[in-house]
Design goal:
Layout: E1 3-8, E2 19-24, H1 29-35, H2 40-48, E3 59-63, E4 72-79, H3 86-102, E5 107-110, H4 118-131, E6 150-155, H5 160-184, H6 192-206, E7 209-213, H7 215-221, H8 224-230, E8 238-245, E9 254-258, E10 260-264, H9 284-298, E11 304-314, E12 326-328, E13 334-336, H10 344-359, E14 363-368, H11 372-378, E15 383-387, H12 390-403, E16 407-409, H13 414-419, E17 427-428, H14 436-445, E18 453-457, H15 483-497
Parallel strand pairs: 1-6, 2-4, 2-5, 5-6, 9-11, 9-14, 10-11, 13-17, 14-18, 15-16
Antiparallel strand pairs: 3-4, 7-8, 8-11, 12-13, 15-18
């Protein structure tokens, strides 16, 4: 991972291969002030003759001819100042990082885009580090681009809080990378047993309590939803549970439940063949949840957290569950299976009910690549969020605004519950095409026992797909969406409660 450090030094004296300076459109005074008189005439000419205007994401490279410490200077465009945000800073930092690698450089120095507060420091750090991510496990020949190893942020005052931000951000970025790596694994190398193995290693590395419930134990516990979905595959289902204890034992935990279908064919209700390969990403919710508890433990958050990951492979075979089956779930409710491709809500429902009964959590968040309907409603850049608790939802929204991981709350009116009523069972697992993302949440609402609960449907945001907005720090494949937002939420919850 890239090493990022602070250094109190005048930019023009820094011995570096490349000095990066940001420029807002129409605002060059700060730029000239930074360099003094050494190169200002050259830069002034470049700006005034329109060779470089500061448009968002643009860059301009020029040598210094040994007149100052840096060997080269790169101007980078910050766009219009009134549109500038921490997300813009994150994207620009990522663009810089990628451009530096294209230039064949292993290090660079950067003057902050504006006053370096903790939020900006976090955004710059994330942009630089997340943009360098590569999933090359299966490449026979490695990339010829050099690895970026060192970045220096040049400051004019000592502020230990900024270095502390970098230290904490390292742990969070590592968790995002962990999530991306898991999500990107192909289905032949990541069946439910592999997720269980990874979770046990995680528990060992981060001092977590772990439990993996096997098929035979699920039968005795009555986890019939998970069993039913997984029984069509030769890879048996697992229910993975990790516990992090960062607060006193009598503090109720936050419960995170993540869907981990390691491959989803749709089962008997078989999906179309086109883009079925992307169904390796149907485990992204579970991978996100594992990454969140890893980050919480690494950060030593003063909270208790439980992560539950139901992991199955949904396959068509002679032993598969069928449309028309009726399943008695863990909490006793019966579910008519109208479509075997609506399997995620079934395994989540059992896990939610089990988690509530076992741990009596203070609040619950489930994360799942649950419905194509969420993509139809909101596109590929915004996750759907549904909740039964306004104040709880507001806290997650605020965290999302800070991380740039967009989400939008959808309603859960009583009418949506009517759509999943069954003639032969308590409920059915689909409610028709209308409002499909919401009726999926209405289904899950039957299993949360009125606890404060948020359902996060990340089907559009978990990996890059048609319509995904290009961001420098989001590579092709798994995005790691949700990890930074949920960790931000937990950090702020920990601060508020202690």
């Amino acid at each position: 991972m890239v090493q990022i450090k602070l250094e109190k030094i005048r930019p023009i004296t820094k011995q570096t291969q490349l000095l990066v300076l940001g420029l807002f459109e129409g605002e060059s005074e700060l730029l000239f002030k930074t360099l003094g008189n050494d190169l200002s005439p050259v830069l002034k000419e470049v700006v005034e003759n329109g060779e470089f205007t500061g448009t968002f994401g643009s860059n301009y490279l020029l040598p210094t001819f040994g007149k100052i410490g840096p060997k080269r200077i790169m101007l980078t465009g910050l766009g219009k100042k009134e549109k500038y945000s921490k997300e813009y800073a994150r994207i620009v930092a990522g663009k810089i990082s990628l451009r530096v690698q294209e230039l064949g450089l292993g290090e660079f120095s950067l003057v902050p885009f504006s006053v370096l507060d903790e939020d900006l420091a976090e955004a710059i750090f994330e942009g630089i580090c997340l943009s360098t991510y590569k999933f090359s496990n299966y490449k026979s020949v490695s990339s010829k681009l050099p690895e970026l190893s060192d970045v220096t942020i040049l400051v004019d005052t000592d502020d230990p809080s900024i270095q502390a931000v970098f230290d904490k951000s390292t742990l969070i970025v590592n968790a995002v990378t962990f999530s991306r790596d898991l999500c990107n694994l192909p289905p032949n190398d990541c069946p439910p047993a592999e997720l269980a193995r990874v979770s046990m290693a995680l528990a060992n590395d981060y001092n977590l309590k772990v439990r993996v419930i096997e098929h035979y134990e699920m039968e005795s516990l009555g986890l019939n939803g998970i069993i039913s979905v997984g029984k069509g595959s030769s890879n048996q289902p697992k229910l993975i549970i990790l516990e992090y204890h960062g607060a006193s034992g009598n503090n109720k935990p936050y419960l995170f439940v993540g869907k981990a279908v390691t491959f989803d064919t749709g089962g008997i209700s078989l999906k179309p063949g086109e883009k079925m390969d992307e169904m390796k990403f149907d485990k992204c919710g579970g991978c996100c949840v594992l990454a969140v508890i890893r980050a919480a433990a690494a950060l030593h958050l003063p909270l208790n957290i439980v992560a539950i990951v139901p992991s199955v492979e949904n396959m068509p075979s002679g032993s598969s569950y069928r449309p028309g089956d009726i399943i008695r779930m863990y909490n006793g409710k019966t579910v008519e299976v109208a479509n075997t491709d609506a399997e995620g809500r079934i395994i989540l429902a059992d896990s939610l009910a089990f988690g509530i009964k076992t741990y009596d959590p203070k609040a619950i968040i489930d994360v799942a690549t649950l419905t194509g309907a969420a993509i139809i409603a909101l596109g590929a850049n915004v996750a759907a969020a549904i909740s039964n608790n306004t104040s709880f939802m507001d806290k997650l929204k605020k965290a999302s605004e800070k991380t740039g991981e967009k989400l939008w709350e959808l309603p859960l009116y009583e009418e949506y519950h009517d759509q999943i009523k069954s003639n032969v069972a308590d409920i059915k697992n689909i409610g028709g095409r209308q409002g499909g993302a919401i009726t999926a949440a209405a289904f899950l609402a039957n299993f949360v026992a009125e606890k404060p609960w948020i359902h996060l449907d990340i089907a559009g945001t978990a990996w890059t797909q048609d319509g995904t907005y290009e961001r420098s720090y989001i590579p092709k494949g798994a995005t790691g969406y949700g990890v930074r937002t949920l960790v931000k939420f937990l950090r702020e919850a920990g601060s508020a409660e202690n």
